Amino acid sequence: MSELMDAYWAAPPLARTMTTAIVITSVSVYLLGWLSPFWIGFHEERLFRFPPEIWRLVTNFFVSEPKIGIIMDPWFVYDYLKQVEVANPKFSAKEDVLWYLITVGSFIIFINRAIIGSGGFFLNGLIMALCYTATQDQRGTRAGFFFFTVPAQTIPYCMIAMSFLMRPWIIPMQISGIVAAHLHDFLWRIWPEFGGGPRLLATPKFVSYLVQTPAALNRGYGTAFRPGAGSGTGTGRTTGASTGSVLPDSWRTRGTGRRLGGD
Hints:
mainly alpha; two-stranded antiparallel sheet; globular
């Protein structure tokens, strides 16, 4: 038991916290009946009443699909968020990853409510956004997706193809996740580096304060550094590529190339 707890606390803090929140909330909703979805789903009108129910901006991302989704959705979140948190060259600090979650989550809510006009729970969109962000810098590598081997950056589109066969109703939300992740990449990296503009999504100081204050988030877990950034004295943690997995997590190796956006 102690080894299991040690492994749990050694996991990247944001991935660990997000996954735990999804598991606890989903089990409370589907298996135990302790929590009603009505009180945690996103409803605009509930944000403007007194007192405002602002927790809905966050808790709507904590409910998985029922049945097998209680297992698979937290796993996807943990796997992709861990890759973003510890090995993605875009983010040099964990507060950047937290700001990524805040901004991408906001984009997903806006796209679904203002444009698509549906949705009260947006975890499927967030999973797709994390998948897109985790795989787009892995161009040139191959990844296992169930019984197939495909280019790593095509994994999000393979997931949409699978949804077309099994759960077509979530495809619009999945697409919103890809759009949100691509928009974040454009404003965070592409426009400043290749367009010569300012970084429009620079991490605010209050986010750094939020990350540095809780003791639970101050655990060492490895930090990724962009090539050429900083003094070069830090070392990031990366993982080697694995093979033979039937889930779309069979990649870990990436190059350091840059892209101009798009696929």
